[in-house]
Amino acid sequence: MSSPPRDALPQAGLKQTRILDNGVFNLADGGILGGIFGFGEDSDLREGHLERLQRPLHALTELQLSRDRPLDALTIQTAVQWLTDTIPMILSDRICIPPPEDRRIFGCSDEDFAFALDEFAAEFDNMGNLRNDWLRPFFKPLMKSDYFMWTVDGKKVGEDANPHWVTIIAHLTKQQELGGYGDEEFGGDFFDLIDTWTVVDPDNSDAGREREFRISSRLREIMLQGQIEIMDDSFSRLWVHPMNPGVYTIMESFSSGLRSWFIIKTMIGRIVEAATRGIDYNPAHFWSATDGWLNLDVVRWEMTAAVAGVLNARCGHRFRMALHPVNATKKDGRNYPSNAIRPADDSLGGFRPDVNDGYLAHRSDMNPLRRIVAERHGVFDNGGYEESDEDDDSDDSDGGDGGDGGDPIAHEEGVDPDRVQD
Hints:
The chain has 422 residues and is of the alpha/beta class. It is 33% helix and 8% strand. It is globular, with a radius of gyration of 25 Å.
């Protein structure tokens, strides 16, 4: 089928409705807000809703600039919204996920943190009841939910601008003797006891442990402002795919936002799975180790699709996904070539859950340069597969596979104790 003559195309209309400009909607000249689609007054695209579009547009752009661009709070928040919007409402109402928090709370000085605590306490009036007109309530949605997840920047004020996102996860229950405050708002039925919680930082270095301690200590003080009790010995460990040791922690610092979203997605999936099996809450299932394999590039594309879904919903589901070539993009003083999103196939690979840095992939899976760096940092010490042409299969029962009785996992049991974090 031949294409129509060029003159037959509505050039003026195409120019007016052009929505892609280096991967971003063209909003400078009104763009899709010009109304030529004939959207009614009930449409999200009418004038005044520009900000509701700009937020997911910003996130969509951020995710597609480069595979190693750190994610900001708005991008993570938008992608998380898609997760909560696409599960049964009866379950989404049970999950409290505040907007990601920057380092003004968890990374500020002790003096500034005292002022932050006053802001949390101000959500209650002098009688101890929640204010119904509070602009950004924190405790009100929290006390209506039995699951709490919060992405926070673990870096201190004054450190480099790139965030290091850490994930707080908690399960709440109701104390048998309910307090008096909030009865009018909640009918005496609210969650005010955290029975299990954790702070997830995939960086197993000393810096990661310091962030974990600081964040967990301040979270306790925040919860006290809402009279939410944290049970003794309730801090748990959730094994997640770790940032690779040594130099790789620096090289993977951009990935903290991707990892936090992936963790939240995993935990939401467990909540849905338990509910569909008729299980209210199973700690052994909910707090079990997460996947030992994490493909950061796939996670970025999943988030891109999620953000696109949010944007399409705000546009009345009138758009369709499309790919188009782009030129190099410049943002924040940095040039991003058109192929900057290309995946990197030279990472360390998978890990065994609950064995910290127990490396699974073969060293030959890495390119030579990274293999040399990994060996310097002891990645293969007593772990990983060791190649040897001197293996004698005549004196063992491995079936000729190289020792250890035919069980490849036996090659991975040894982990350098100097690199294991309790």
